[in-house]
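Observation: inputs received (chain + alpha-D-tagatopyranose).
Thought: call the complex predictor directly.
Action: predict_structure
Action Input:
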Amino acid sequence: MNKVLTAGTLAAAAVLLAACGSGQVGGSGGDSVQNNKSLVLIPGQQAEPFYISMQCGAEAEAKKLGYTLTTSAPQKFDAALQTEKVNALGSNPPGALLIAPTDDTAMLAPIQQVANRGTKIVQVDTALKDSSVAVSSISSNNTEGGQLAAKTLADLVGGKSGSVLVLDTIAGTSTTEARAKGFTDELAKYPNLKSIGVQFTQNEPEQAAAKVTAALASTPDLIGIFATNLNTGEGAATGLRNAGKVGQVNLIGFDASPSEVDGLRKGEYQALIAQDPAMIGRQGVDQAAAALENKPVTKTMSAPLHSITKANMDANSQYFYKQSC
Ligand code: T6T
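Observation:
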C-alpha cells in the first residue's frame, strides 16, 4: 500500500513539474529555471551613471564567481517599462534576478511571477513595500542619507535663517522617499531653517529646473535646496544657473554623477551625498550566488554613504560614478 501511494505521489509530482515547465501552473506564464549560473540585472533606468556603476560592480563579481550576468534596462524610470523587461524573462528565467523596483507596489506582481518559477530575487537599491518576495535586499541607508544632507546644509548656513525646498522624484520610489523624509525630520531640529515642502519632479531634470525657477520667484528667502537624486540635482543646478543664483542658494545633491561632480567643482553644488553603487551591485551578486548555492543569505544589507564637498572632493574621487566600466 505504502509503495503504491509513493509511486502515485511521484507520478503526480512528475505531472506537476512537467506542467510547471510548460508554464501551466500558477498562471506564471513562463518556463521554470534551467540555468542556475545565469543572473539578470534589471536596473531602474538605462544609460544612467548610478546604475552603470552598479552594473560594473555586479559584472566584475559575477565573472569572479563563475556566473554570467546580463543587464536589461528600461529606457526610463517607469514601472510599465520595467514590467515589460521583467515579463520578457518568461521564456528563459534566470537563476537569480537582481532588480531595482521602480515602484514599491506596482512591481510586486511581475516580480512575484518570476519568483514563482524558481528565480531567486535580490533587490538592489530600491525596494518593494512587501519585500518578502526577495531573498536579500541591498541599499544605502537612505533615511540616514537625508539626515546627513540636512546636517550638512545646517552647517553650511551657520546661524542664517531661510526657507528650504526638497525635490523628490516619483511617488512610490522607496529610496528618494526615505531621503526626503530623513531630511525633513532632521531639518525640523534647526529653528532657523523652514521647509517649504517636498515637490515631485517625475525624475525629469527639466521638471526639477522648473520647480526651482518657481520656488525662487515665490520664496525670496530660499536658502537651500535638497535634491534627492542625480536627475533632480542636475535639474536644480540648471534652475539656479538660469536664474543667476548659483552659490547664493545652497544646493545639496544626492549621488555623484560626472555632471554633479563637475557642478561641485564649479560651485553649483555645495555638497553631494555619494552612494556606493558598485558595492551594491557586488553584494547583490554575492547574495544571489549564496542563495543559488544554498549558503546563508543576509536578508537586508546597507551600503555606506559619503558626504563630499569641494574641499574634500579630490580625496574622494573613488566614489564618483562611472559612465562606462
Ligand atoms: O539615486 C539613485 C538611486 O539610488 C535612486 O533609487 C534612483 O535615482 C538614482 O538612480 C539616481 O538617478
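Thought: report the result.
Final Answer: Residues 44, 48, 50-51, 125-126, 175-176, 229-231, 254-255, 275 surround alpha-D-tagatopyranose (CB under 6 Å). Residues 57 and 315 are 21 Å apart (CA to CA).
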